[in-house]
């Protein structure tokens, strides 16, 4: 399987760390000033420590909507690949951001673009795009499909974060709220086609950590046992214990990398799902990955783009001539769940 093309589109509203801090004060006019100031200082310190600078959101005043950016990505991917809608055999929609629980969101975009492809969705938090790649690889390798398109629309800010998570109840809230302030938004479209290239996917799952990052939906209580870490912000609101995620994730992903990768220097570029630039740079340094090979530019400039982080990174790297055809590539994501992956292929 080969990647024909990856197209990414991001919304236009750039949100700085300073705006995040100012908005905390605006959203809490009746709270004790000293508590808010302490909270603001802690948030700003931790954002800077993670490598955060800006994140991108839809500009609602300009009328930006997810549908337009997703559709634009699809059209641009088809054009760049010199393919028509009818050439796509399978359309996979993946990720956290979505407009429908039923039907699969892929059907809605197939309908909007007059595509007669088979359709389904994949949901595995920030791992969704990589999981979709492996599914596409298995289908293409078996000869079942020829051209597969993977799309996502990670637009979650107004749906699950803002302004609700800017309202401060107490200082302890920062433990499970800070990651919300790093989230950005993006749409991507990836087209993959048959080739002799071999891909490998190695995973580790840690379901015992599944309660560390969640967005519960109405009636969730009937589907799990009681858990004090879930639903701390309410239904459809994002809860993420960032420090616990990173401390556990760093250990698991580092061990997986050591187990799977025998020659670190043999790869040309590594693409993490960066929910923290600092964390992945530290892991890279520990493993002996040269900083210039560890592509961490997405997080500081666009925010945590959830399952769109890696495809956005590849799109950016190609525009910067940081990746070229024939390069040996590692995808290096960690995700809520928790799950971790080392995926290897030739671009």
Automatic annotation (TrEMBL):
<dbReference type="InterPro" id="IPR013747">
    <property type="entry name" value="ACP_syn_III_C"/>
</dbReference>
<protein>
    <recommendedName>
        <fullName>3-oxoacyl-ACP synthase</fullName>
    </recommendedName>
</protein>
<keyword id="KW-0808">Transferase</keyword>
<dbReference type="InterPro" id="IPR016039">
    <property type="entry name" value="Thiolase-like"/>
</dbReference>
<dbReference type="InterPro" id="IPR013751">
    <property type="entry name" value="ACP_syn_III_N"/>
</dbReference>
<keyword id="KW-0012">Acyltransferase</keyword>
<dbReference type="Pfam" id="PF08545">
    <property type="entry name" value="ACP_syn_III"/>
</dbReference>
<dbReference type="GO" id="GO:0004315">
    <property type="term" value="F:3-oxoacyl-[acyl-carrier-protein] synthase activity"/>
</dbReference>
<dbReference type="GO" id="GO:0044550">
    <property type="term" value="P:secondary metabolite biosynthetic process"/>
</dbReference>
<dbReference type="GO" id="GO:0006633">
    <property type="term" value="P:fatty acid biosynthetic process"/>
</dbReference>
<dbReference type="Pfam" id="PF08541">
    <property type="entry name" value="ACP_syn_III_C"/>
</dbReference>
<feature type="domain" description="Beta-ketoacyl-[acyl-carrier-protein] synthase III C-terminal">
    <location>
        <begin position="265"/>
        <end position="343"/>
    </location>
</feature>
<feature type="domain" description="Beta-ketoacyl-[acyl-carrier-protein] synthase III N-terminal">
    <location>
        <begin position="120"/>
        <end position="155"/>
    </location>
</feature>
């Amino acid at each position: 399987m080969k990647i024909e093309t990856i197209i990414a589109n991001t919304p236009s509203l750039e949100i700085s760390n300073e705006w995040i801090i100012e908005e905390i004060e605006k959203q809490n006019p009746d709270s004790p000033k000293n508590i808010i100031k302490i909270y603001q200082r802690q948030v700003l310190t931790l954002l800077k420590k993670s490598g955060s600078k800006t994140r991108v959101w839809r500009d609602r005043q300009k009328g930006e909507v997810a549908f337009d950016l997703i559709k634009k990505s699809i059209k641009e991917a088809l054009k760049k690949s010199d393919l028509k809608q009818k050439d796509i055999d399978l359309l996979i929609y993946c990720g956290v951001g979505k407009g429908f629980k039923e039907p699969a969101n892929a059907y809605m975009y197939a309908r909007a673009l007059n595509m007669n492809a088979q359709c389904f969705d994949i949901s595995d938090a920030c791992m969704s795009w990589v999981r979709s790649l492996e599914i596409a690889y298995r289908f293409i390798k078996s000869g079942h499909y020829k051209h597969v398109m993977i799309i996502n629309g990670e637009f979650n800010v107004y749906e699950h974060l803002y302004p609700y998570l800017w309202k401060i109840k107490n200082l302890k809230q920062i433990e499970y709220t800070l990651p919300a302030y790093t989230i950005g938004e993006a749409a991507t479209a990836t087209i993959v086609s048959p080739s002799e290239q071999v891909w490998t996917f190695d995973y580790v799952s840690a379901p015992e950590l599944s309660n560390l990052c969640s967005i519960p939906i109405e009636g969730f209580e009937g589907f799990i046992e009681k858990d004090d870490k879930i639903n701390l912000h309410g239904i459809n609101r994002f809860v993420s214990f960032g420090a616990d995620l990173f401390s556990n994730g760093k250990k698991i992903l580092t061990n997986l990398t050591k187990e799977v990768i025998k020659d670190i220097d043999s790869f040309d570029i590594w693409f993490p799902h960066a929910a923290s630039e600092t964390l992945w740079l530290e892991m890279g340094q520990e493993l002996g990955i040269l900083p210039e090979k560890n592509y961490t530019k997405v997080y500081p400039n666009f925010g945590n783009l959830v399952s769109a982080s890696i495809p956005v990174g590849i799109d950016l790297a190609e525009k910067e001539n940081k990746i070229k055809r024939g390069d040996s590539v590692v995808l290096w994501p960690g995700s809520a769940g928790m799950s971790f992956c080392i995926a290897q292929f030739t671009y």
